[in-house]
Amino acid sequence: MEKRNEEWKREQSRIEMIQQVIKAKLEKLQDRMGGLKEGIIELRRDFWKDVTINLDHPDDVIETFTSIKQQAELLAEQERNHGQSYKKVEQLLRLNQSPYFGRIDFQEEGEQAAEQIYIGIASLMDQKDEDFLIFDWRAPISSLYYDHSPGAASYRTPSGEIEGNIELKRQYIIKGGKLKGMFDTGVTIGDQLLQEVLGGTANTQMKSIVATIQREQNHIIRNEKSRYLVVQGVAGSGKTSAALQRAAYLLYRYRHTLTSENIMLFSPNPLFNSYVATVLPELGEENMVQTTYQQYLISRFGKGFSVEDSYSQIEYTLTAKDEPGYDQRIKGIRFKTSVAYKKSIDEYVEKLSTQGLMFKSFHFRGELLFSSEEIHDLFYAFDKEISIPNRLKLTAEKLLKDLSAFAKKEREKDWVLEEAELLDKEDYLEAFRQTQKEEEAFDDMEQEERFLKKKIVSQHLKSIRRQLKGLKLLNIEALYRQFLTSDTLAEAEDWSLIRAYTINQIDQRVIPYEDATPYLYLQDQLEGRKANTFIRHLFIDEAQDYSPFQFEFLRQQFPNSKMTILGDMNQAIYAHSMHAPTLLNAELEGEEKIVLTKSYRSTRQIVEFTREMIAGGELIEPFNRNGEEPTVTKVESLESLHKGIVDRVGELQKKGHETIAIICKTAAESQTAYEQLKAQIPLRLMKKETNAYEKGTIILPAYLAKGIEFDAVILYNASQQQYGREMERNLFYTACTRAMHELHLYSLGTCSPFIPKDCQG
Ligand SMILES: Nc1ncnc2c1ncn2[C@@H]1O[C@H](COP(=O)(O)OP(=O)(O)OP(=O)(O)O)[C@@H](O)[C@H]1O
Which single residue of 321, 497, 571, 742 could bond 328 by disulfide (Cβ 3.0 to 4.6 Å)? Predict the structure, then answer.
């Protein structure tokens, strides 16, 4: 005990020593930043003082331009330095609160003594900048902490493997600069600390897990080799957490060549997006680019169509089973997301190479300028060996030339002169500026008029020119409609009904969700698309919800990106992804698969209860944290359902649970339940547009709760009526696995067959 006390004191005084170093560093930075800030203010104020503007002669213009540029660069450099120093200050302040969370004493082979390696969220050097007082958790040596127990161990560095022996492995809880806990750990990273972390209350924002990353998670985080890293992990196994730590790791490992703008995350919904948005900043990194597949589709479609969102589709699949045409729509969804459908598009494109492309016509002031037939003939006159996008390019070039010739003639028409006369002062001024740029002087009236006419015509032709330059010659909508009538498709089951539905939707300017990807894919195959080479790492979370077709599409958009693909087959909730091939089980060349079977989110009792809902659930291993048994309550009336839920919320609040979710099956059910419950308990309704939530009691459809967790979950109506079909199994499982500490199910009438038999109320 005494020995422990001494150790404790020693550790506490080391923390104080660190704080002294931090203080000194902060003071130094403060001086520097003060100077920098003054420099910036001064530079901004005097920006124009040191610049002589002289535009009399071309040489003077160049000189003026150069001096402005130099001045601007100087300012930018200073501001950058200021920004970096600011980041450093933030980091030091964070370290001051909690300098490190781990330590290993490592004796390197050939060395006399073990070195103490302290690990924290950032590195810290001593006053002389000679030795590391703290190692960043992402440094090569820190991997010892995550990968090994005391005993023989090694870690990889860019110059080779370093072998040695770990003599001690210790964990700390340091809050507000004070040592609150300290454990020496044997085997894996202390269950004790993990128990403590996982036992806490759920947050409305995800937390970083640096202090307790598990070995198998560390493999995901530090993987550098694989082109495609595929993670199948059970609910609550830390997939999202590992993905975010991995982004932070990559930003550190490749800090000279990679920035947060080169990393993109596809997440399931806007709520999830904001839920995870604080993890990277907490680690001192900037957030990566975050989007949803839906947002990505919308950005591609522009204004011409409204794209049905995936939630409306899911809402339909869950609520409309008795409507006419339901089965066909489901068949349509499954077919249009399949690789077979993609193949049909490929075949169609192949055919279009020799005939059948449909072009737009271009009109100018009500008159036909280029007819679609004319463009068609121009296009097919080029060699068939040339790809469609390249032939489009050649066609557009020819049309642009014709357009210039047309513009020249048009300038002499009366309407142009009339319009020139109506121009106001502003336009003249603009015209004047333009002539200056083009080094045309307004010598006489004739020149001025010529310039203005040119400008007017080119203004009117701007939209056509832009379309030609962007190779927007094809009538993609007509082509997609034509594709729907292809012979190969006619063989698909119920195709004529599926097609009728699609055409009806397109007539109403709506693209069904299942058609959005194929439509854009067809467009890209024909027009060609500049690949996004800027994004170097793509993270796809909830990957089980992506069809193989969607994945192929993404792969085409980001051909040079490495991809981290994370998901759980048992949480596939879309009509296209249930019991169907998805991105998660696709065989990808250059892939590495990691399977996570341990669940950290929920108590052992909840994991044992939920794992019975799915096939293969026995392989899910709970982390050993105890809590109350989940409950199932069967009620016979809506009134008792609501009374039960209201009482339960009260009880949970009394126990101190801060985030309580009442999870419904659909948005429609959430809305009705909300209306009836809101008078009795403070409650917030989450909708698909909601992108943040606060602590308290919320009510939401299961598909919006994806990826998120709550202290306690109440399943609104876990009846057979609501969750009886096989296609509702995964949704049910997903909803139940959102619970960290408590799970309570209410069933109006007979219970869902997915509830373990011995628990049915
Ligand atoms: N190594 C760890 N240390 C501490 N907490 C962890 C660790 N791994 C996971 N957790 C916690 O477990 C919970 C679930 O993690 P996460 O949301 O990343 O899992 P997931 O696999 O993405 O879950 P799901 O698929 O169910 O959405 C989170 O609260 C996370 O902080």
Answer: 497
